[in-house]
Fold:
Amino acid sequence: MNEIQAFLSQAWPWYVSGPLITLIMFLMFYFGKSFGISSTFKTACSIVGAGRYIPFFKMDWRNQIWNMVFVVGAIAGGVISSTYLKNPEPIQLSIDTVERLSELGIKNAGANYLPEALFSFDTIFTLKGLVFMIFGGFLVGFGTRYAGGCTSGHGITGLSKLEPTSLIAVVGFFIGGLIMTYFVLPYLIQL
Amino acid sequence: MFRFDSIHMYGLLGTAVITGALLIFFVKKSRMKNIDGDLIKFQPNERGYRKYLFGGIIFGFGWALTGACPGPMYILLGNGFFIFLPILFSAFLGTLAYGWLRPYLPH
Structure:
């Protein structure tokens, strides 16, 4: 048992995790559903009654409960992996990444899944915290619904379906991500 | 992620898409049925390019800022990073704002 636990606790190689994601997508199709996480944002808005004021959220959210159950499962997966399958090794970031983060003032990169200097309750009400966490989260919610999907819906399901429109969306993800990373983040990090 | 320093993320997405495309090809070819006994069908996306391009770019900005797309937001919350609670909450607000502004946006 301990050996299995130790084996599973290693960082899983990408060529194992990638096909496992496909397995999730297959299970979704098999059970008559689809694989798309950002739809849960819309469902959440609908559950709290946004449909009364905004027609976009007028839907029978009870039909979408399965997706909420799916993300509760994803949260549970996070609990299980962090409780029983914790990897004692630091996260394998490339040397370039660690050096660049260090230049930006983020020490200890890779010690944890997120740099606490940037992402913590201590910094959330600073200007930097508001921009990175609150405004960043807002753009994720806005953009995914505008595009009609996120990494799972367009990136994995859409590209697997060979959908040209999903390819446009994914190209958009990268245009946005690259502009932000190279031209905007270096200034924001100094806030 | 967006500096292309390591293969983890791209290898993961790449293998997921390649195996996913093979899977869908196989599902269609074998006319596979779902658990209810109905043929598994794949809905085509809506036509157009504006919503995909503009929405995608906006999501890309947010992805680079928060370092997480929606799935990992939930998973990292489960990992005990409660800071993702307010981040997820602002993502809900972003979706709410989109629904409100939707009639005025190019699609």
